[in-house]
Amino acid sequence: MADTNTVRKTDLPAPKLSSDTFKQLRDLVYEKTGIFFQDNKTYLLESRLLPRLQACRCQTFESYLNFLRFDAYRDREVTELYTVITTNETYFFRDEAQLDSFMKVMIPEVMKTNAGTKQIRIWSAACSTGDEPYTLALLLRDYAPLSGWTIDILATDISENVLNIARTATYSSHSLRKVPPAMLSKYFTGKKEQQTLVPQVKDMVRFMNVNLYDRPRLKLIRGIDIVFCRNCLIYFDDKAKAQIVSDLRDALRPKGYLMIGFSETLHDTTGHFKTIHAGRSVIHEKQ
Predict the structure, then answer these.
(1) Looking at the structure, do residues 77 and 149 belong to the same domain, yes or no?
(2) What band does 14 get if pLDDT is binned at 50, 70 and 90?
(3) Does residue 1 sit within a domain?
(4) Per the database record, which ranges form the CheR-type methyltransferase domain (predicted)?
(5) Span 33-51, average pLDDT
(6) pLDDT bracket for residue 275 (50, 70, 90)
(7) For burial by CB atoms within 10 Å, which of 98, 109, 158, 273 has the most?
(8) C-alpha angle 10-55-36 in degrees, rounded to nearest 5
(9) 116 and 203 assigned to the same domain
(10) Can you tell me the distance from the alpha carbon of 173 to that of 193, in angstroms, rounded to the nearest whole number?
(11) Would you say 78 and 32 are in contact if contact means Cβ atoms under 8 Å apart?
(12) What is the mean pLDDT of residues 110-138?
């Protein structure tokens, strides 16, 4: 007969994140990624990290912090950490006003500039599960004036987990809900609930693991015509954001374009860019 006085593991209260440990974890995350959690975000960080404590068999946040600092598998765990502290809410054809500006303003201007080389290079920074870069690929694939042009789309993210999903190019009906029906039938295969992008479009995008806060890594990316970095800058404080925007600017060719999220601003970094109002969206042109 079981001892009724024995406390089962599942009956134990969930670990709590102390103020001191929160600050240490917050600083470690910031050091690695530039992502900053304000003092009033203790509960948010606590709730997002709890599943990782369980996965690493850590009983407390203090032991998890030590795991991140000293364990032989800490680099692998940092990758998992990136995934849980960011929100990967994305879908095909998100923020259509911006995509409209992309096709009607940015692409025609880039085509004029690059008429000699007939090549366009686009970078989807913080691409998550690939919905954004594949959307750009679909639009460009269906744009007749680009026939004969070379389209190079680089898609990067800090999380290897979401990149692995992106590389499969297989999506749910929810992710594809805004894809025009004609385009859906032309470029996707499979059942309605789960469809896969055809190789002709899938192969237009190449994926790479890149931490936007890693300056040496970003120096490898140059000569880009258009950068999409939407709904990502909101995670950073002003110092980290200024660094990242500066590095994105360096990646762009002269007069290249940066597109950020509707709810985002460049603040003090706007001296690097000329602001262009195009319809219902804002484009930033490198100066």
Answers:
(1) no
(2) confident
(3) no
(4) 17-275
(5) 91
(6) very high
(7) 158
(8) 110
(9) yes
(10) 5
(11) yes
(12) 97
Whose tokens are 């994305």? That residue is 90
Joined together, the tokens standing for residue 206 give 């190449």
The structural domain count of the chain equals 2
Please tell me the predicted confidence (pLDDT) of residue 11.
Answer: 56
Residue 7 has pLDDT above 70, yes or no: no
* DSSP state letters, 65-122: HHHHHH-TTHHHHHHHHHHHHS-----TT-SHHHHHHIIIIIHHHHHHHTTTTTEEEE
Domain residue limits at 67: 14-85
Strands 273-278 and 224-229: unpaired
- Find the helix or strand (DSSP H, E) in which 21 lies: helix 19-33
pLDDT mean over 231-253: 92
Go through 69-79 and write b for each residue having 16 or more CB atoms within 10 A of its CB, e for each that does not.
eeeeeeeebbe
Same domain flag for 138 and 181: yes
As given in the structure block, the two tokens for residue 177 are 């809900």
Give Cα separations from 222 to 143, 161, 218, 285 (angstroms).
25, 25, 8, 16
Query: Does residue 95 contact residue 262 with C-beta atoms inside 8 Å?
Result: yes
Distance CA 130, CA 94 (A): 12
Predicted confidence (pLDDT) at residue 5 exceeds the cutoff of 70? no
Please check whether residues 173 and 256 belong to one and the same domain: yes
* pLDDT of 262 above 50: yes
Residue 146: Cβ-neighbour burial (10 angstroms; 0-12, 13-18, 19+): middle
From edge to edge, which strands make up the β-sheet containing 188-191?
170-172, 194-197, 188-191
- What is the Cα–Cα distance from 233 to 262, expressed in whole angstroms? 11
